[in-house]
Design brief:
By secondary structure, the chain is an alpha/beta fold. Helices cover 42% and strands 11% of the residues.
Length: 418
Amino acid sequence: MGQSQSDTRQRGPEMPTSEGASHQIPNLPLPTFPHFQYQPLESNHHIRLVTLEQGPDISAPIRCSIAHHKLDGVRYEALSYEWGSPATSDPEISIDGYALRVRRNLRDALLYIRAQDNDRYLWIDALCIDQKNSQERNHQVSIMGRIFSQAYHVVVWLGMATNSSERAMYIIERVYHSPSDFDQLRPDILQDTHALCSRSYWQRLWIIQEIYLAKELQIYCGHDNVPGKAFEAFFLACSNHQFLQHADLVSQIRQSIALDAHMAKRVDRLQNYTSFGMQGHIEFQAWLQIAVERDFLCSEPRDIIYALLGLSPSMEEINILPDYEKPIAEILVDALVVCERTPMKLRQEFRGHVSGHGFAHTLAHRMGIPSGNSGLVLELYKTARNRARHLEYTTGNHKSHSELGAYDSHIEPEDRSW
């Protein structure tokens, strides 16, 4: 199996770096291969894993193979990265002797995380899921929480290096080994770190799941890589630091990564409410608030909901399953039903954020429903509220139903005419 990366900074194959260096890697020549065809997975308990073959340097073509494995019991790493936009110039890689076109950012990642002396065994969504098979895609997305939580290692790819990012990666590791060095950082170095932590990778919605569930992280930027613990230490130093001379800049760095320890604390605080039951509803509502508040990005509107489902096994109780052919309006209703069923005391925890018609409008807008369709959104909210009440009746939870009625006081008077 693939060799684990150690908790020390390592350098992969060398290549001169500069601003925008990712465009300097040419499309590596490959023989003309027939195109790769996916074979069906044996069961819902199987996944595909990519063997990324070792390569002496980045000039060597990328060669991979794909095999099917049962998820439980197999040892692998998982890759967390940005897909990026498709382009006609996207390169091809070799998989089992067949050609497969991939996005440029994934090709760059494979070149730089590839080891020189051993193969790596990886789960990579773009390669391990047959994206043209909607049934398989739906199921594999539903188990992505398990996939990332069971990986022994999550590899984070931030993108190609620049002069600024090289300095930032060096400083982050330096502070990790010597926290007192934080006091000596110059403003220009702090600016480099802020630039690294403001990359678009950190705004991806899916990183909530990919990073939060990871057992261990190794973060790559070009040929540099540092352990995830180094980033944690750096941001802890930012949080605890009384660096008045550069307080604004330190604050910007602390806030630049959307996924921070503050989020986890907010969710962990909800463990105090486990006596109410409905733990999956509670956790889903907490993460949904975070996703909407921090304006995480995703190209697929349905992922605003689906990217949160794997964060806790308890969320199976909310009975939302990924279905990329389901109309967005129906998915919005499903999510609002969960929010409306949350016990009253928990609603007060999120008051004004994740319940009521105001939040319905916010979530609808994030899911691509135009803000001018207020009448449609109010109809969908009314449908969700009525469905939540019906579920409370059918489950015999009349106390929760009365709480739902009490919560109607948060609805604007003009909305009660529905």
